[in-house]
Amino acid sequence: MNSRDAILVLEDGNYFKGYGIGKFGTTIGELCFNTSLTGYQEIFSDPSYYGQLLVMNHIHIGNYGTVEADMQSAKLHINGLIVNYIEPKFSREKYLAQDIQNLLINNDIIGIQNIDTRSLVKHIREKGAMRGIISSDIVNFDELFLTLKNSPNTFNFPMDNYVSTSVKYELNPNGKFKIAVLDYGIKLAMLKHLENSDMNIHVFPSNTDFKEIMAIKPDGFFLSNGPGDPSVMTHAISTAKCIMHENLPTFGICLGHQLMALANGLKTFKMHHGHRGANHPVLNTQTGLCEITTQNHGFAVCLSDVDACNDLLLSHINLNDRSVEGLVYKNRPMFSVQFHPENAPGPHDSLYLFEQFKNLLIK
Amino acid sequence: MPKDIHIKSVLIIGSGPIVIGQACEFDYSGSQASRSLREEGIKVFLINSNPATIMTDKMIADEIFLLPLTPESIETILSNHSIDAVLPTMGGQTALNLCKEVAELGIWDKYQVQLIGVDIKAIDLAENREQFRNLMIQLNIDVVQSKVANSVLEGKEIAQDIGYPLVIRPSFTLGGTGGGIVYNKHELDQALTNGLHASPIHEVLVEKALLGWKEFELELLRDKKNNIIVICTVENIDPMGIHTGDSITVAPAMTLPDTVYQRMRNMAKLMMQNLGNFVGGCNVQFALCPQTEQIIVVEINPRVSRSSALASKATGYPIAKIAAKLAIGFTLDELKNQITKTTSAYFEPALDYVIVKIPRWNFDKFKGANDTLGLQMKSVGEVMGIGCCFNEALQKACQSLENEAVGLGYYGKSLMKNAEIMDYLKLPKWDRIFRIKDALMQGATVNSIAQETKIDPWFLHQIKIMCQIETELSKHQLNNVPYELLLKAKKSGFSDRQISKIIKGNFSENDVRSKRKELGIDRIYRMVDSCSAEFKSETPYFYSSF
Fold it and tell me: What ipTM was predicted for this assembly?
């Protein structure tokens, strides 16, 4: 691999030197870190990472190559990648795998390696999420710092347009339950589990008019994950209001969960540095049992709002920071979770939620 | 109500003498468990016949009995003291066997002592290969083709059915004593005789050998509510066929895709939930076919084991300490992560470093012993290296072996020619990792070594990167070695002494040290914090890097 000097400059003036990986160039985004030990390809191709410079805490990235089957969408969505060591030499025999470096280049992903991710993660942990710029073209600190300062903050406006499908489509036409899926940047694993739950899936672009959605006469609704600040997504919130007004079985995951909460008058807030990883402990308050969950979010629903709301039940809570992980709408066939029951990557502890959704549709 | 308030005093059974096949792990777990119970205000009694242990130090338990590990000793203790419960899972197979013997004699019942943290039926089920196999088939989990034999004749018939190569595993033995791989029918008689002799119940399992398959281990914890977490994934660099206690292992697993790992995790959970009602630590071993990604379960140990001690040190998560608390009725979500003090004990550690464990053998003290590694554990201890990359961890572990080598290299001593090495590598010996490096230094390809050893090429590539750095270093003198190269070497775990031997000219360890200090290449220290730095932690447990 050609080695080329690269630099990562942070909004607060700190910088880290390393070597360029993926495509050479310059890229800007908000920094976040993911602690998963496996599943890097699923993470990079998760549309929720749109606009982010992703730090992988795990030391060696690329060990088992990349395979088509692990993609969570058509392409990689991270805006940049920061790692300790990228491993172009991989080991995987079963599938026709390609190396990670190839996948990054083919997806125009700019990255940097030989970064002390422990220090960087500690910095983000203490100072909070911040923006950064990676460059393997320009290694001049002043120039990059200025470019970063002058660039617009993408998190102030909705991002669903960049990641949602542009046309509606149908999956599993013979499925028993017809559901309308709102695509805010959906992961393929969600569609797979809906399909496995015998659903006839109609996926709609995020900006679809509600009347058009209702034209298919759905049995239920599914609101997907996606990137960005939910509170600025006015169209999506009003669609969520209309959806919830129908009183049909409705299931929301991650951003979908936040949109449902906003539609019900609750508030969301930007977290200090978010939850991203595959080891987040969640307590199901209804069963008293715990589940290890995959998480990927930088915004969350306000706990105090949930407590103040009589027709809401806090169904899941984070055991580390007591943040809101799941809501059940009392007397309505609706629920949502902040974490990712579809996993990919991560534990399968929460797959029962798809079954729970199906049971609402059976009733 | 979390804790069982009826338990006010607990007897912990130690593991007795430390023998080949153990690595002092039970001393570690017994001491941790004792402290953990005392933290909860429980009076701890401890029995162990081995005074040369930490756990028998006066400060560890409230009362210590240095007595033979026999039912008579147990009865003497119980008749003189009021003991509510016994925790037998911290003393390995020795403690469990004693616990069972005492149970069969009805002594626990007589003194109304409750067995905690253990389900004897689960242990028996896990140890009884035939029953275990049937349960796995019921659960739709793949097991290797095998059958139990109680005589040489029976064994021969089974061998004919299954075909070679075969593994002979005696039932109820520690560390695989008496087991072996049989490549053809000429070796069969002897192997069956040895195996049957080694088993206390004169029983062996004849099974298909999964040669060339990769081996993985999961260390898990379970509480009474059936909450299960994976503490650590461990990958054996040495493939199936070498006892995990004699394998060089890495944590976390390096070559497992998420899809494959999650299948293993699901299987482990399913097995634990169906095996019985034990709470505490559990170890599950899997074999993975690299070509088909088929997973076969090798075995399950529903108790604290050698690998739990390693997993504790690797992740910072105190398995025995938490297991003891689970045994007295706590659930994982009620306990705090002992490292961060603020987050939950119900979580799965994330690592941003690499651990390499290398067994330590003492073949020079056992002249004439067969030094080829196999199903029977021959090591007498182990060393562990923590590094910021695989190579650093590997080199650190090699440096700790206290043998003639300096890190991963002999530097002039006992060199073999390439053809000779490739032949030598076919049989796994204790020094195989050193010979692999020699072979790579001499230009052998990763593929050819992978073929001979069945070691995953990923690890061999990493060692090759190390060799490339060494070759670069050897071209320089100390005064003209580039900063980047020296830094790279230090990050890859080369010690100053090692560099002094590699580099051109006559330099001492101190010369190298002064040079790198002059260049500003200094040691840094990082915390083993169980969470990849996601949360602030307070623990006096560090590793160094550059």
Answer: 0.96
